[in-house]
Amino acid sequence: MKDIRLVALDLDGTTLRSNNTLSPAVKNSLELMIKGGVEVVAASGRPFGSMPREVLGIEGLRWVIASNGAAVYLGGKRVISTLLEPDSVLRVLELTADHDLIWEAFSEGETVTDKRYYDDPMRYGCSQAYVGYVRGSRECRADMRRYILENRGRLDSVEFVTTDRALRERLWKRLEGSGEPLYITSSSANFVELMHRDATKSGALKKICERLGIGLGQTLAAGNADNDADMLRCAGTGAAVANATPKCLEAADILLPSNDEDGICELAARLAQQR
Questions:
Q1: Which terminus, N or C, of the chain has the lesser number of Cβ atoms within 10 Å?
Q2: Neighbour count for residue 179 (Cβ, 10 Å)
Q3: For residue 215, how many other CB atoms are within 10 A of its CB?
């Protein structure tokens, strides 16, 4: 962890507590890292428009990786885009046509979800703490497949939600074997998230480092979910919180306390000791 110049932090389940809040202690730790000369990057599966205001409002936090790496923002301006290919979107719809799935779609400035999910998120595995976030950050449509079809040329990502684990795994394998240039990942147990194969958190991290002239060996990434594992492996040091998935834990070099124990505070303390 010596000479770390950039820290990329997943938000949900890592930097944020399980009740979808940023604790004062973690906020203070982020501010101290920035004041100490570390470039802090928010790296989330969320689209930019759904990022927590308390995170975006931290003075000196300039870079945001959004939609799992499909978009990168600098000072609130989108500077890198990696959209789904329209033909890939058509193929995804074709391969899933025999199932009535709950779909969400993400594009710049717009997040749209199935009306059934909007009306009752907890039925599809959403925790109580995130119900307000879902309804406050999304528009809804009754026919999401039609929406995705009509907007296939401007999508950062699409995802489907199902509590049927066997179906989730079966469709994942079907899409993975499609030959389409897709990156398939998951930020929580009931989601299957689809981006362009180049739209990863690790890919976005590399592009930011290139722009800043920072070597990957001088970076640290922290996360909790499967969609963070590639970023942890890519960074010079990977850190997982104690509540992380097995895939994320396997990719980590160090283990931190859980998100509800403000594990990022320990990360900040370790960095301060090394400087």
A1: C
A2: 8
A3: 12
Instruction: Report residue 86 as tokens.
Output: 């329209």
Do residues 45 and 24 lie in contact, with contact meaning Cβ atoms separated by under 8 Å?
no
Q: How far is CA 263 from CA 244, 270, 273, in A?
A: 12, 11, 16
Residue 141, number of CB atoms within 10 A of its CB: 17
* Per-residue pLDDT tens listing for the chain (275 residues): 679 999 999 999 999 999 999 999 999 999 999 999 999 999 999 999 889 999 999 999 999 999 999 999 999 999 999 999 999 999 999 999 999 999 999 998 689 999 999 999 999 999 999 999 999 999 999 999 999 999 999 999 999 999 999 999 999 999 999 999 999 999 888 999 999 999 999 999 999 999 999 999 999 999 999 999 999 999 999 999 999 999 999 999 999 999 999 999 999 999 988 76
* Residue that has been written with the tokens 């059934």 in this structure: 116
Structure tokens at 191: 């989601």
What secondary structure letter does DSSP report for 109? Answer: T
Tell me the domains of the chain and their CATH numbers: 6-81+199-274 (3.40.50.1000), 86-196 (3.30.1240.10)
| Cα–Cα distance, 98 to 108 (Å, whole number) | 29
82-116 as b/e, with b when 16 or more CB fall inside 10 Å?
bbbbeebbebbbeebeeeebbbbbbbbeebbbbeb
Place of tokens 């000369």: 37
List own/partner pairs for 46-51 with CB under 8 A and 24 or more apart.
46/11, 46/12, 47/71, 47/106, 47/107, 47/108, 47/110, 47/111, 47/156, 48/73, 48/78, 48/108, 48/109, 49/109, 49/110, 49/111, 49/137, 50/111, 50/133, 50/137, 50/138, 51/11
Token pair 């950062």 in the structure block, residue: 156
